[in-house]
Amino acid sequence: MQISDILTVKRVFVDINADSKRAVLQELAAKACRSYGIDERVFFDALLERESLGSTGFGRGIAFPHARIPNVKKVKSFFVRLNTPIDFEAVDNQPVDLIFMIISPEDSGADHLTALATISAAMKPLDRCKKIRKAKTREDIYAILSK
């Protein structure tokens, strides 16, 4: 799996304002709702439930919230760069400004895990994260992510 298999330019969002983890999850749920045509609350509740198991704050200012949702047919990801980093209860206690959300079908075991591994590998290089933080447009971010 490659980033381009699960992410499009239209699902990259630049300079989003959110003042809390809850607020950014609400924003992501709204974006997923528009993409899938499923009630926003379904996404929000699933994301909150997953976060209750342990933060998806990966470290180095990055988080990977994810959920499996009934009636979803295909794995999709959404990328958000926040204007101001927020507390995401990350493993390194650092605030988060780069958020990569994955939404998967309810019964997607391997595809969901493969998507998580793909975005984790994509966000590992420190220089890539620096480039994303400096990028001006969603197209620039998408190009950096999909290389």
Briefly, what is this?
With 147 residues, this protein is an alpha/beta fold. 44% of the residues lie in helices and 24% in strands.
Molecular structure report:
The chain is of the alpha/beta class and 147 residues long. The protein has a single domain, classed as 3-Layer(aba) Sandwich (Mannitol-specific EII, Chain A). Helix content is 44%, strand content 24%. It has six helices and six strands, in the order αβααβββββααα. It has helices spanning 3-6, 21-36, 40-53, 110-123, 126-134, 138-145; strands at residues 12-16, 57-59, 62-63, 66-69, 76-86, 96-105. Strands 1, 2, 3, 4, 5 and 6 form a six-stranded mixed β-sheet that branches. β2 (57-59) and β3 (62-63) form a beta hairpin. α2 (21-36) packs across α3 (40-53). The longest helix has 16 residues, at 21-36. It is globular.
What fraction strand?
Answer: 15-25%
Number of contiguous helices: 6
- Give the mean pLDDT: 93
Quaternary = single chain
Classify the fold: give the CATH topology: Mannitol-specific EII, Chain A
Give the terminus-to-terminus CA distance: 13 Å
Helix content: 40-55%
Most strands sheet: 6 strands, mixed
Summarize the topology:
Layout (H helix, E strand, L loop, with lengths): L2 H4 L5 E5 L4 H16 L3 H14 L3 E3 L2 E2 L2 E4 L6 E11 L9 E10 L4 H14 L2 H9 L3 H8 L2
Parallel strand pairs: 1-5, 3-6, 4-6
Antiparallel strand pairs: 2-3, 5-6
Helix pairs in contact: 2-3
